[in-house]
Amino acid sequence: MPTIRQLEYLVAVADLLHFGKAAEQCGVSQPTLSHQLTALEKRLGGRLVERNGWTVDLTPLGRQIVERARRVLVEVGEIRSVARRAREKMVGIIRFGVTPTLGPYLMPSIVGALNREEPDLRLYIREGIPSEQALELSRGRLDMMVGPLPLSAEGIELEPLFRERMIIVVPPNHPLADREVVKREDLAGERFLSLDPRHHYHRMVERICDELGAVILRDYEGTSLDSIQQMVGSGIGLAVLPELYLRSEVGGDALVRRVEPVDWTSTRSIAAAWRMRAANEDSYRSIARRIQLTARAILSAD
Known about the structure:
Shape: elongated
Structural class: alpha/beta
């Protein structure tokens, strides 16, 4: 039977398509990795990796084996977590993924509370594209994530947390800034800022622009909600910002004015996710509950 280490080498090569980088990631020499993959191929009776000069690719058999190897490695990781959890409370490092349209202004208070309650727990927080992080979660590269719905990947469990309104903001000197009553038709033709098209946020802004008859500024994509807020404040365009962001100390609405059409509203739903039957599921649920309570407290405050 293949060894766990051999499967780790194969998956690393599949991810990086480079023997040297795969060996470095696995903490072994390149000859060792190559030798073990050759041994794995002999044991399974077929070529798994094609080596063509500097290029590396998987054979059809290799691709099938890799997908199954990923599931095996995830399960092995869970077995190790079960054994560790039998001896410990919430300890160690949780690899935590979060969207940049949520993490910077919600996670600081979460991290502070968890540090007080679970001093031996560490969150290794990585911001990223939610759809990409869902895939990383299913492959065992993340332990838990929080992001906007929809989230989909094989073998993950979703826990809905809260829903927040999306608020239209305009520059302080915009004609709509001081208008008492605004209707959706007043926003037709307006130009909205957004993030990189890979973000769920971008697709949401596209949908909102379609509803309002507005357009997205393609030449001025923000890199964060802060950059979008600042560009709105400087007069480049309008934006749709999450209510939690506008209520936070990190974000806020000091540079912009809120506009709330009487005949239009939009919301987004936020959920936590982890792998199904994860060994640390109780810990993940506890963290998710903490995030849910914190967010709801902020959203319900006057």
